[in-house]
Amino acid sequence: MLNRFLTLGALCLIALSCTPTDSGTTGAQNDNATEMKPDYSNIDEETLDYLGITDPEHLSAASKRALAWPEGSRSNKWFIEYQTFDLKGDFAYEEGVVRRDPSAVIKVGDTYYTWYSRSTGPSQGFGGDIEKDKVFPWDRCDIWYATSKDGWTWKEEGLAVARGEKGAFDDRSVFTVECLPHDGKYYLTYQTVGGPYEVRVKNQVGMAWSESPNGPWTKLDEPILSPADNGVWKGTAQDRFAVEKKGDFDSHKVHDPCLMAFKGKFYLYYKGEQMGEEITFGGRQIRHGVAIADNPLGPYVKSKYNPISNSGHEICVWHHDSGIAALVTTDGPEKNTIQWAPDGINFEIKSYIPGAPHAIGLVRENDDTDDPLKIMEWGLTHQYRTGDYQLIRRFEGARKERHRAKGVKAKAKEE
User: Fold this and answer.
1) Separation of alpha carbons 137 and 360, rounded Å
2) Are 362 and 314 within 8 A, CB to CB?
């Protein structure tokens, strides 16, 4: 039956035309769909020739999946390749300093802004002194910001949001930040860790807002998003893989928040980590979710359709064609794909992307254009120089139009 495909080997997802949303609506639906058999008798010759099928009476499973690809999926509209470059100024590599997880790049007047995680010193892992040392590069971070006139040379402007006071939910680290400008205000969403950074620590998502990209920033007193509370640890040892019940996809951690204004509401996309996380399809068991609010300050309610992905790592989303597009990377059966959802929840694969940069910071002035990948022309990423220290770099993307062997020249456009 070709009504729904999830082919894990080929990593090809064909979504049903009738998909649920948080509003409870569905598209057109055929009640007898599960009883229908595919009909290949009316396949047009152009499609068969394009796919290299000469005998439609004998179709492999792969050919049937190809014939079920949605209209327009055979174009190169959603395919892009990347290069990365070192930056100048304060974003040049500095030994002993961690700069990572750049936010979206926001242009205010003639100036670009970005926010990022910043810490100093090496990381000792969980084998060090948890009370005194850094566990990870993103441990003991504060959120800083930098500006640029050209996107290449960056000036570090200083601290934007600091860790909280002792005993606060964010007293250990604030990191992995995103920025949403909306109605003359700026909203930063970020991960937080409080107390000792132990293996089983459950981080949360915090928020700060300002009327200027330069601050000052007002932090909310409480987190806006927390892990699910329906998992059960096994024993008391600091072992994240020992569980009696795993719980929801986000029962351990909520990471990488990205707030988007969408359809008159505010969609907070995030990465979920599950208690007892396993390795599946060669990667970690990571999925994405979304929480929705009527006001940017919340309260945020998790979608009943979570998780909204079965793969991914860092959140990278943007507006396109009245919906939300997403770059899904690193982990899971659908890693390294670009997906799109008309409702921001039910995503379909549009293309497969090799070598996507980590922790992408998109340039929001290129958001929501006719070209779905205009926003990928350039932006920020981070790169590990060592296990202890990372730096922020620039990426540039370009659509690949043709594959040519060495020495073969491209024809002039007029030909």
Assistant:
1) 18
2) no
